[in-house]
Design a protein that fits this description.
Strands 1-2-3-4-5 form a five-stranded antiparallel sheet, sandwiched between helices. A hairpin with a 2-residue loop joins strand 1 and strand 2. The protein is of the alpha+beta class.
Length: 208
Amino acid sequence: MKKLESTLVNMVGVLVCVALVMGAILAYVNHITEGPISEQAEKALSDGIKAVMMSDNLTVTANDTISETIDNKECVFIVHKAADASGKELGAAVESTTLGFGGDLKVLVGFSPEGEILGYTLLQHAETPGLGAKADTWFQKDGKASIIGKNPSTPLTVSKDGGDVDAITASTITSRAFLKAVNQAYDVYMNKKTDAQTGATKKVALKQ
């Protein structure tokens, strides 16, 4: 068999063939892993909702996506309404995202029907390990600055800004971002409850 000459056309042809084969392999791998990854993400969210609502025996009755413009940026919130086995309203778990120190900080916050914080978990963050990443535990019930049981009808703020929540040591920016995400989640949840009760569709400006 005659050896393929090392011309520019031949080299380009070989590279194109290699690229096509690799692309096909990656597409196949993505196809077979897409399902398991999606199922894992759904399970993580389901477990997160149960954790922040402080109940293993609940049913998610609605998953409402709400868009709001905040600081000239379109922000998306997802409200997961929950009820117990008898159909009694337990409140809702709200997904809220703000900009932290290292990137997006996505929080899932559980609220009672009256708006009290039942629990929270971080769904996504890029904060510094050992510093901002402590938000995962710092504001929990047994943390150093618990927000559990608080009602953000008056926005939660760090003590440096005149509030009563102690910021994570050396991570004030992350603490502010976290509390902003919680405050906005509360506003979206309570505004949605008001709209549902009155039939109103007018959006109310969120607290900053």
